[in-house]
C-alpha cells in the first residue's frame, strides 16, 4: 500500500469513527422541537397549538429524555397527541407516565398505540429494516398494554384506538379519530368509522355547522391503506409516527426507508396526502427514540412536533 493509500485509509477510518461516535453518543440525545404552521381553520379562528409526541421507545434509565419531555409543558399546547411506540422496555411504564404527567394533566390529550406498546424490544438484523417492513410477529405480546392504556386514561388521556372523540379547543370544534397500529394489523377502520358516525349523530346541530369542524386523524404507522381510511372520513390533518424519519438519513438524499409503504420522501415532516377526491395535511414525526438494540441516529435528530393550526389565508 502506497503512502497516499495509507493516508486515504486513515482519513476514511477517522471519518467513520467520527460518524459512529456522533450518531450513537451525541445526535440521538439532541432532542428538538420541529415546528410547522398548518393553514386550515376558519377565518377569524384562534390558532390551535398541537404538540405531537411519538416513538419515545422509553427505557426506565433514560432520565435525560424523561426530563426533556416533562419540560415541554412550557410550550403550553392546546392539544397533545401521542402517536404510539411510547414503550421501549418491559419495565418502562412508570417512567413513561411520570414523563407525560405534567403535559397530560394540563392539556387535552389523545393517544393511539404502536406495536412496541405490545411487544418489548428484541435484537434484529439492521439490514432487514432497510429491505422491507416486517408486519407479522410470531411472539406473544409481552407488554401489559391494558395497564398502559389504563395508566394513560387515568392521567386524563382519551383513547383513540379504533375510536373517535370530540373536543372544543379555543372556540373550534375538533373531531378526532384514530386507529390502532396497522404495522401489526391491529387497526379496524370499520370500528373507527362507526364510532365517528355515532359521535356525529349525537350532535343535535351537526347539520347546521358540520363544515366548521376540524377533523384530525391519528395513526401510528402511516401505511397507505390507513391513510386512505382516515382521508375517507374527511381528515383535514393526519398525524403519524413509526418511521423514525428513516433514523439514518443520507444528507442530500433523505430517508432510505419508511419501514412501511409510505414514500420515503414523506418519512419525516409535513406534507400532503391525497387521492382523486380529497386531500389532507400529513405530519409524520421522526419521534424521540429508537430501539435499545439500535441506538443510532444520523442526520435525523429526535424530535417532538409542534403544529400551529391557523386560519387559512
Q: In a nutshell, what does this entry contain?
A:
It is built from eight helices and 14 strands.
Write out key terms for the chains shown.
313 residues; alpha/beta; 8 helices; 14 strands
Helices and strands in order:
Elements: H1 3-26, E1 32-41, E2 48-53, H2 63-71, E3 79-82, H3 93-104, E4 109-111, H4 126-131, H5 145-155, E5 158-159, E6 163-169, E7 172-178, H6 189-202, H7 206-209, E8 214-218, H8 224-232, E9 237-240, E10 249-250, E11 254-255, E12 269-274, E13 279-284, E14 303-311
Parallel strand pairs: 1-14, 2-3, 3-4, 4-5, 7-8, 8-9, 9-13
Antiparallel strand pairs: 2-14, 6-7, 10-11, 12-13
Helix pairs in contact: 2-3, 3-5
Task: Give your account of this protein's structure.
By secondary structure, the chain is α/β, with parallel strands linked by helices. It has 2 domains: 1-30; 32-311, Purple Acid Phosphatase, chain A, domain 2 (4-Layer Sandwich). The chain contains 8 helices and 14 strands. The strands form 3 sheets. A 6-stranded mixed β-sheet has the order 1-14-2-3-4-5, with helices on one face. Strands 6-7-8-9-13-12 form a 6-stranded mixed β-sheet. A two-stranded antiparallel ribbon has the order 10-11. Strand 2 (48-53), helix 2 (63-71) and strand 3 (79-82) form a beta-alpha-beta unit. The mean pLDDT is 90.
Amino acid at each position: 500500500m502506497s503512502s497516499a493509500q495509507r493516508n486515504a485509509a486513515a482519513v476514511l477510518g477517522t471519518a467513520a469513527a467520527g460518524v459512529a461516535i456522533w450518531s450513537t453518543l451525541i445526535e440521538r440525545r439532541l432532542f428538538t422541537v420541529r415546528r410547522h404552521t398548518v393553514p386550515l381553520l376558519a377565518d377569524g379562528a384562534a390558532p390551535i397549538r398541537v404538540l405531537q409526541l411519538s416513538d419515545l421507545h422509553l427505557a426506565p434509565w433514560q432520565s435525560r429524555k424523561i426530563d426533556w419531555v416533562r419540560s415541554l409543558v412550557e410550550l403550553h399546547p392546546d392539544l397533545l397527541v401521542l402517536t404510539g411506540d411510547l414503550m421501549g422496555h418491559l419495565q418502562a411504564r412508570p417512567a413513561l407516565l411520570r414523563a407525560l404527567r405534567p403535559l397530560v394533566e394540563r392539556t387535552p390529550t389523545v393517544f393511539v398505540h404502536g406495536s412496541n406498546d405490545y411487544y418489548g424490544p428484541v435484537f434484529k438484523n439492521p439490514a432487514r429494516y432497510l429491505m422491507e417492513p416486517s408486519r407479522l410477529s410470531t411472539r406473544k405480546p409481552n407488554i401489559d398494554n391494558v395497564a398502559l392504556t389504563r395508566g394513560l386514561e387515568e392521567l386524563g388521556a382519551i383513547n383513540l384506538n379504533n375510536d373517535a372523540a370530540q373536543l372544543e379547543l379555543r372556540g373550534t370544534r375538533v373531531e378526532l379519530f384514530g386507529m390502532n397500529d396497522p404495522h401489526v394489523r391491529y387497526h379496524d377502520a370499520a370500528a373507527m368509522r362507526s364510532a365517528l358516525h355515532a359521535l356525529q349523530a349525537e350532535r343535535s346541530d351537526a347539520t347546521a355547522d358540520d363544515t366548521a369542524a376540524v377533523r384530525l386523524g391519528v395513526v401510528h404507522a402511516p401505511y397507505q391503506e390507513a391513510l386512505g381510511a382516515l382521508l375517507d372520513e374527511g381528515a383535514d390533518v393526519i398525524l403519524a409516527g413509526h418511521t423514525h424519519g428513516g433514523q439514518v438519513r443520507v444528507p442530500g438524499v433523505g430517508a432510505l426507508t419508511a419501514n412501511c409503504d409510505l414514500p420515503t420522501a414523506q418519512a419525516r415532516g409535513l406534507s400532503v396526502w391525497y387521492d382523486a377526491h380529497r386531500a389532507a395535511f400529513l405530519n409524520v414525526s421522526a419521534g424521540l427514540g429508537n430501539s435499545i438494540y439500535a441506538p443510532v441516529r444520523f442526520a435525523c435528530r429526535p424530535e417532538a412536533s409542534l403544529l400551529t393550526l391557523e386560519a387559512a389565508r
